[in-house]
Amino acid sequence: MKTIRNQLSLVFTLLFVICSIILVVSAELLLKETITEQLVNSLKRECRFLSSLVVNQPVRNKDFLKEFSREQELRLTLIDSTGHVMFDTWHDVATAGFGNHNNREEVEAARADASGFGTSTRFSHTELAEMLFVARELSNGYVVRLSHNLEFVQEYVRRIRSLLIIATLVATGIAVILIFRVSEFITKPIRALTLATIKIRDGNYKVTLPENSPNEIGRLSKAINAMTDRLKTTIDTLEAHQEVRKTFIANASHELKTPVASVRGYLETLQDGALEDNQVNRRFIHRSLRNLDRLELIISDMLTLSRLESGSSQESFRFLDLEQYVGGIVEDFQSRAKEKNLSLFMKSNMPRGTRICIDPTLFDKALLNLLDNAIKYTDTGAITVSLELQDKQCNVVVHDTGRGISETDLPRIFERFYRIDKARSRELGGSGLGLAIVKHVMSLHKGTVSVESESGNGSTFTLSFPV
Fold this sequence. Notes:
55% of the residues lie in helices and 17% in strands. It has helices spanning 4-56, 62-72, 93-96, 105-112, 151-201, 216-239, 245-274, 279-288, 294-310, 322-332, 334-339, 360-376, 422-427, 434-444; strands at 75-79, 85-88, 117-124, 129-137, 143-149, 318-321, 343-348, 355-358, 382-390, 393-400, 448-453, 459-466. The radius of gyration is 34 Å and the shape is flat.
């Protein structure tokens, strides 16, 4: 049977599934792109390291190069200026029958690009596998080329895809149950209206509908009740005039068809999808979609980080009163701090009214990330936000009394997706991109971010802006 409940359930389930598919595909593509980019950068570093060995004494270093190639699972190829393969760590040049390599995409790019590097991804007929090639042109016209089998990337992406699909299926099952219950809650008053109009259509004018819904349904209930009241009054009056009763009933029935048809048409329009959600509806819909909210955060954070790294973000710098602006942000976090019984306060040694040039949106991202982390990873004690004016720079310092960061982890905390405690970080909803975003935000402000911390003794993050 076609009902609003079934239609709402179907629409929201389809939306959930479509969004889930888009997120899974986007995450897979972004993951593959990120891993490949990291691999390219790694191969470029290896190319720089091997260049001097290859160009100076390739024959003498032949055994070392082969051992290096075996340990790193990399194929190294040396190509002279004419395109002839002089050396290959995986194949015997004399018997392999290599053709001229000057027409290889990565070799052409390395010779043409000012950086001296060229890359390509293609199927290698020599290795019978999908390979990533990175080539670097040397000062003597030679080209050193490294290649890596991409099977491990594809296997890793397949595993992540399987995990995402399983998570999506579980989330979809939960969402379907919640959506059905929400739809039942939303459509219950509409079904009551439908039954009432049917009774009115059948001549029962004593129907009274509840008018407590603060939306279109409540207003429609009032209109129907008003209409039935008027009809009842009219009918009561007609009962006193028996002589004209039949005539009146005939006329009343005729007049009734028009408003009933209008009401029914309105309900059918709602049934076809024109129902406007109220706050309760949106709140319950939000609950049914809450398992999708963490993946959004890795991307948002991924898209935000991507825009910051690519330079495509649109900055809007202006001078702001720093103490007043930071004070507002700190005030917004007071409730969260109180929930964990933490003290959160701000102090400043800056002259009142000190203004610095910042992009408010980007500054918010940086400071919000630091305060969010401070509250998440501090169980007892206090969080202090200090504003300091030193020499020709302004410092915003966030100090907490939390668990701190070990000396081993400290150099890597600004790396993308690096987590000190992976299990706790995911439990608290972190994406692993917050501090990387902070670093890029400060770079756009021509400032720096630094950290001082010891395991068990809290952490101090400092955002330094030029004045």
